[in-house]
Amino acid sequence: MFTPKKMFLTKGVGAHKDKLASFELALRNAGIEKHNLVMVSSILPPNCQIVQKEKGESMLYAGQIVFCVMARSETNEPNRLISAAIGVASPSDGNNYGYLSEHHAFGEIAKKTGEYAEDLAASMLATTLGIEFDANKAWEEREQIYKASGHIFRTTNICQSAEGNKDGLWTTVIAVAVFCDYSLCKDAIAPVIKDEPQNNTGNYNNKGFGKSNGTA
């Protein structure tokens, strides 16, 4: 019943002997460990402004339920290269929605993982806007086609990469799009739930399924 008006991007890395603790350290490195994070799918809401991390963080408080799109990769193999990225594609018309994409990989440098995520978000947005493109062309070429169409305003990405800890500790990398500054939807109507009348057996009558007689 509400829509985020702002979003910020962040990333982090952590290493620990325990997998969960490694993830916690990555959250701390990203500055979002104080929130109850809920992962959602990848739509950038209409008129959602991308703000600096510091500004976005100031709008959140400890313990708050915070919605986000997260890419995550982890390993306990020494020196194994891991990466995680979020791609962003926003339309020129702010009244339309954009796309966020998450991508995680092994053996890829940050630039490649980040560009892949950005490409994915831009391609998804392009298909919804009816922009024709050749999927076999390199990202750099398609990026120019997308922006030349006048329908896609901005594409970007954020990526975190790391090599697995040399001593075999769990290493976790995350990239996150964090939603903040929520507003109620203008046309949202909260559902009204009424208690069903009970019969003398103490069981609810289920409309459409006959009356309950209190027996199994």
Note down, in words, how this protein is organized.
The protein has 216 residues and is an alpha+beta fold. The protein has one domain: Pyruvoyl-Dependent Histidine Decarboxylase, subunit B (Pyruvoyl-Dependent Histidine Decarboxylase, Chain B, 3-Layer(bba) Sandwich). It is 22% helix and 38% strand. It contains four helices and nine strands, in the order E-H-E-E-E-H-E-E-E-H-H-E-E. It has helices at residues 19-30, 53-57, 110-129, 139-148; strands at 2-16, 36-39, 43-44, 49-50, 65-75, 81-91, 98-106, 152-163, 170-184. The chain has a five-stranded mixed beta sheet. A hairpin with a 6-residue loop joins strand 6 and strand 7 (98-106). Helix 3 runs parallel beside helix 4. The model is unreliable at 188-192 and 201-216 (pLDDT under 50).
Overview in brief:
Helices cover 22% and strands 38% of the residues.
Tell me the number of helical segments per DSSP (H or I, 4 or more residues long). 4
Number of strands: 9
Please tell me the total number of domains: 1
Kindly report how far apart the N and C termini lie: 38 Å
Low-confidence stretches: 188-192, 201-216
- Note the run of SSEs as H and E: EHEEEHEEEHHEE
- The CATH architecture designation is 3-Layer(bba) Sandwich
SSE-based structural type: alpha+beta
C-alpha Rg, in Å? 22 Å
**What is the name of the CATH class?**
Alpha Beta
Estimate percent helicity: 10-25%
* CATH level-four homologous superfamily name: Pyruvoyl-Dependent Histidine Decarboxylase, subunit B
Inertia-based shape: flat
**Main sheet makeup:** 5 strands, mixed
Q: On the 0-100 scale, what is the average pLDDT?
A: 87
- CATH fold group: Pyruvoyl-Dependent Histidine Decarboxylase, Chain B
What portion of residues belong to β-strands? Answer: 35-45%
Strand order of the biggest β-sheet:
2-5-9-1-4
